[in-house]
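Re: the 197-residue chain
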Amino acid sequence: MDDNVKRAEELLEERMRSQRTNGHPAEEQPEREAEAHADTTALTRDLQRLAADFANYRKRNEAERTDFAKYAKAELIRKLLEVLDGYDRALETMPEEVKGQAWVEGMWLVERKLRGLLDAEGLQTLEAVGRPFDPYQHEAVAHVESDAPEGSVISEYQKGYRLHDRIIRPAVVTVSKGPPTADDEVAPGAERERDQG
């Protein structure tokens, strides 16, 4: 009889296994499928969000690398501008009697080559004289009365430069206060009398 009981228990277990799917009774199957679908949907959304974040990261990283490569030379160019300024000052103050000599022509050639090299790297000279003062492009060292309109640049002490779209050195300039007014032209003695009265 033990064999019959044992055989009956085995048949019962086999029947129970056939009624279950993945270890769950058949009546629980629709609930499990709904949960699995919800989990799959959530995981798909998370994966799409992660893929979008990674795509944005790659684009941002590529833009940063491009920007870095574009402006990596800025510090070297800024240092070379001092050399170029020295050439400009030397060539402007050159006496007339030496201007035709070979070594002077050599200096002009070096200056043109250096300027051409910097221009090829994207360097541009900022135009200052006669333009309105712009604090992003100009550094004012004086504010004087002149016949020029108020707020316009009337002289330039040092050229300003832009590398691609960034200012790497502002122009050092003098800005006009405008023409002198009648109040500004009061005699020194008359001013004391006005203050005492």
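The chain has three domains: 2-67, 73-121, 127-180.
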